[in-house]
TrEMBL record:
Pfam families: PPP2R1A-like_HEAT (PF22646), VPS15-like_hel (PF22956)
Domain Phosphatase 2A Regulatory Subunit A helical residues, every copy: 92-276
PANTHER family cross-referenced by the UniProt entry: PROTEIN PHOSPHATASE 2 (FORMERLY 2A), REGULATORY SUBUNIT A, BETA ISOFORM-RELATED (PTHR10648:SF4), SERINE/THREONINE-PROTEIN PHOSPHATASE PP2A 65 KDA REGULATORY SUBUNIT (PTHR10648)
Residue ranges of HEAT repeats: 17-55, 171-209, 210-248, 249-287, 288-325, 331-369, 370-408, 409-447, 526-564, 565-594
Span of domain Phosphatase PP2A regulatory subunit A/Splicing factor 3B subunit 1-like HEAT repeat: 281-362
Lineage of the species this protein comes from: Eukaryota, Metazoa, Ecdysozoa, Arthropoda, Hexapoda
UniProt-recorded name of the protein: Protein phosphatase PP2A regulatory subunit A
Organism for this UniProt entry: Psorophora albipes
Domain of life: Eukaryota
Transmembrane annotation, as ranges: none
Length: 594
């Protein structure tokens, strides 16, 4: 009797995971249901491979009706389930639940189910693929609802390479069927997967079967289908020999460049440099250059902006022998028009890449043709345009040299240093150490030093912070002696300023410069200033004194610490303000530990 009871108990224990799962999946609380789905792998391990195949998977297949969030988690889990059902030999058990999930209404769930189906399909042997996965694909293709037909599109490229010639022919027919489907969503899904499918189809069938599908889709009455055909165009052009590209792909591409929908033309512009690499130099010269001109003067700003971002990359990919001539005669006139484009986004897009033309065209062309364009953009009314030009100044500096740069562009740069938009001022600050190093001490002292001091008093904190780092970098460039003669006294004088923020900036500068000026300047010039600021009426200043002293102490010998640093910290440690006391004691502990 006892033995029988223990046998029943063992049976009960083995049923326990499934029972708990059933309870949790029926619970009204979505979070509980979601958690139980995320624990599926643990439940599968508890059940073992056989019971996972015979009990868990059928149960999941039957109960697929829930919130999208739960279904999404399930679709994701099942993609990693192959080891839990017994490995690749049993991967076919995962197909039924994933097939059901691939037909639901919610797109993200379907996409995740297809992603998992692709993973599981790849784990099947070639024989199992034909027996289990291909029939699933064909059921999805002939499904009544468009949802199953859109999901089918994602499975062709996984199945096709590993099946027999007869099945391959069926799959090509199935794909053609989807390309001609009456529902635009299905045609869109097929167009989106056409390039991927093209990569696994044999060249003869690519020409005989897939290119007609591509041509047909590029003429679809829905622009959402046509624009995806442009993406497929890149993949197909990469796979075809040059002669075939000319007569199979180019007529369709020319048609897309002139498409009535701006979204299709925008997609051509987005993919333009990929197309350029795919079609090769000859077709680029005869076809893509005129097409690029057309896109650069498109009626829609979005298309012009997208084409503008491709200007430098397109030009650098041109064949070297004719590169300069094509740019100067066929591209630059259009670029000049874009500099004065009525749309700020177009000008901004161009400004982010136009400097890159300088190294391609060389010094003479840059000075004669590009400098005036850069100047116009540096003075543009839109801050984004000015910012994009400043951010890429180093491209041109390497080509024309600092003398030419300082004569032509520097007045505009100085003007931007006081720009009303703080992000523009920030970009100029970040460029300043590079400028300083290239212009030399004398030029910097005459033209740029005062700008750097003005930034220290800026009303925007981010500018003041960047300005202190800028000072440190410039001292690294010009050396300690220059710093003492030209900037340190003017920085230290800020401790007398009536605005406590400027007194704080004085401390921040001392912090930043401590790394580069050496112990002598710290002891001789910085410590007396800090001592005065330690009695500042504003608590924020006093606790920054404590933090600064901790930062300076590694650069000082013990005698200086005992004589100058410790007395100030001890006094601050008895301060009435709790924050000041905290930072003073932190600093004392930090210095003692060091």
């Amino acid at each position: 009797m006892a033995a029988s009871t223990s046998g029943d108990k063992a049976a009960d224990d083995s049923l326990y995971p499934i029972a708990v799962l059933i309870d949790e999946l029926k619970n009204e609380d979505i979070q509980l249901r979601l958690n139980s789905i995320k624990k599926l792998s643990t439940i599968a391990l508890a059940l073992g491979e056989e019971r996972t195949r015979t009990e868990l998977i059928p149960f999941l297949t039957e109960t697929i009706y829930d919130e999208d969030e739960v279904l999404l988690a399930l679709a994701e889990q099942l993609g990693n389930f192959t080891p839990l059902v017994g490995g690749p030999d049993y991967a076919m058990y995962l197909i039924p639940p994933l097939e059901s999930l691939a037909t639901v209404e919610e797109t993200v769930v379907r996409d995740k189910a297809v992603e998992s189906l692709r993973i599981v399909a790849a784990q099947h042997s070639a024989q199992d693929l034909e027996v289990h996965v291909v029939p699933t694909l064909q059921r999805l293709v002939s499904g009544d609802w468009f949802t199953s037909r859109t999901s089918a599109c994602g499975l062709f490229s996984v199945c096709y390479p590993r099946v027999s010639a007869a099945v391959k022919a069926e799959l090509r027919n199935n794909f053609r069927q989807l390309c001609q489907d009456e529902t635009p969503m299905v045609r869109r899904a097929a167009a989106g997967k056409l390039g991927e499918f093209a990569k696994v189809v044999e060249l003869e069938y690519l020409k005989s079967d897939l290119i007609p599908m591509f041509v047909q889709m590029a003429q679809d009455d829905q622009d959402s289908v046509r624009l995806l055909a442009v993406e497929a165009c890149v993949s197909i052009a990469q796979l075809l020999p040059q002669d075939d590209v000319e007569h199979s792909v180019m007529p369709t591409l020319r048609q897309c460049v002139n498409d009535s929908s701006w979204r299709v033309r925008y997609m051509v512009a987005e993919k333009f440099t990929d197309l350029q690499k795919a079609v090769g130099p000859e077709i680029t010269k005869t076809d893509l250059v005129p097409a690029f001109q057309y896109l650069l003067k498109d009626t829609e700003a979005e298309v012009r902006a997208s084409a503008a971002t491709k200007v430098t990359e397109f030009c650098s990919n041109l064949e070297k022998s004719s590169q300069e001539q094509i740019i100067m005669t066929s591209i630059l006139p259009y670029v000049k028009e874009l500099v004065a484009d009525p749309n700020q986004h177009v000008k901004s897009a161009l400004a982010s890449v136009i400097m890159g033309l300088s190294p391609i065209l060389g010094r003479t062309n840059t000075i004669e043709h590009l400098l005036q364009l850069f100047l116009l953009q540096l003075k543009d009314e839109w801050p984004e345009v000015r910012l994009n030009i400043i951010s890429t100044l180093d491209c041109i500096n390497d080509v024309i040299g600092i003398q030419q740069l300082s004569q032509s562009l520097l007045p505009a740069i100085v003007e931007l240093a006081e720009d009303s938009k703080w992000r523009v001022r920030l970009a100029i600050i970040e460029y300043m150490p590079l400028l300083a190093g290239q212009l030399g001490q004398e030029y910097f002292n005459q033209k740029l030093r005062d700008l750097c001091f003005n930034w220290l008093n800026d009303h925007v904190y981010a500018i003041r912070e960047a300005a202190t780092l800028n000072m440190k970098k410039i001292v690294q460039t010009f050396g300690t002696q220059w710093a003492e003669t030209n900037i340190i006294n003017q920085i230290l004088v800020m401790y007398k300023n009536s605005n406590y923020l400027h007194r704080m900036t004085c401390l921040f500068c001392i912090n930043a410069l401590a790394d580069v000026v050496g112990a002598d300047i710290i002891k001789r010039l910085f410590l007396p200033t800090i001592k005065v600021l330690s009695t500042d009426p504003v608590a924020n200043v006093r606790f920054n004194v404590a933090k600064t002293l901790q930062k300076l102490s590694p650069f000082l010998d013990q005698a200086a610490i005992d004589e100058h640093v410790k007395p100030i910290l001890e006094k601050l440690n008895t301060d009435t303000d709790v924050d000041v006391k905290y930072f003073a004691s932190e600093a004392m502990v930090g210095i003692a530990a060091a």
